[in-house]
Recover the amino acids of this structure.
């Protein structure tokens, strides 16, 4: 499953790069050309149409950038896992209206690229679970270096569930992806802890070893 996830991520990154380099850059040039025409429009009506078209192209650029992030976060490769996580929580809050916060201890957290990708998608799945099932008002992601490990805590103040059932067979298909996350984390030598009770929110802790410096 982890190898498949990595292969999918590489393809998503390729597509995201193509869309950015071809589509967004072309749209940006269109906006520049329209802006130059606005100053020499022959009539107020023509100026109005140009302005509306310029606004529409700007909206398309913003929506395309959002789709690129959903495909593959550029920040994950450019600035690292922490920056990508922070942007993820900001976008989730804007999209779903739940208050998401991000905390990081600012300690170095060296990771191989493949591990970084898998962790990012695990956390993203956990946050999507919160929006779909938790009925939460607040959620938080915390990243902390502890000895030679990285601990990522995802918690919410939602309705919670019976965590003792996570290992049951039915959770393989109905466990909101938790079983899959646990298996992928185990593949890279990590482990997952879940604390939850009905009516008391949920806390999920992902732990994995950091790269030797």
């Amino acid at each position: 499953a982890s190898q498949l996830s990595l292969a999918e991520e590489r393809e998503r990154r390729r597509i995201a790069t193509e869309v950015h380099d071809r589509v967004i850059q072309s749209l940006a040039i269109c906006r520049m050309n329209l802006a130059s025409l606005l100053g020499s429009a022959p009539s107020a009506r023509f100026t109005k149409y140009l302005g509306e078209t310029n606004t529409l192209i700007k909206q398309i650029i913003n929506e395309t950038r959002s789709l690129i992030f959903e495909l593959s976060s550029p920040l994950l490769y450019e600035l690292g896992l922490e920056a990508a996580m922070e942007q993820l929580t900001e976008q989730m809050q804007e999209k779903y209206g739940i208050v998401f916060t991000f905390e990081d201890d600012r300690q170095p957290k060296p990771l191989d690229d493949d591990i970084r990708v898998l962790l990012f998608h695990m956390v993203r799945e956990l946050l999507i679970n919160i929006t779909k099932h938790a009925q939460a008002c607040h959620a938080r992601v915390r990243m902390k270096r502890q000895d030679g490990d990285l601990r990522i805590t995802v918690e919410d103040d939602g309705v919670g569930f019976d965590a003792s059932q996570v290992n049951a067979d039915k959770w393989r298909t109905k466990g909101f992806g938790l079983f899959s996350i646990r298996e992928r984390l185990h593949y890279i030598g990590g482990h997952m802890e879940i604390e939850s009770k009905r009516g008391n929110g949920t806390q999920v802790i992902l732990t994995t070893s950091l790269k030797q410096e």
Remarks:
- The domain at 78-209 is CATH 3.30.565.10 (Heat Shock Protein 90).
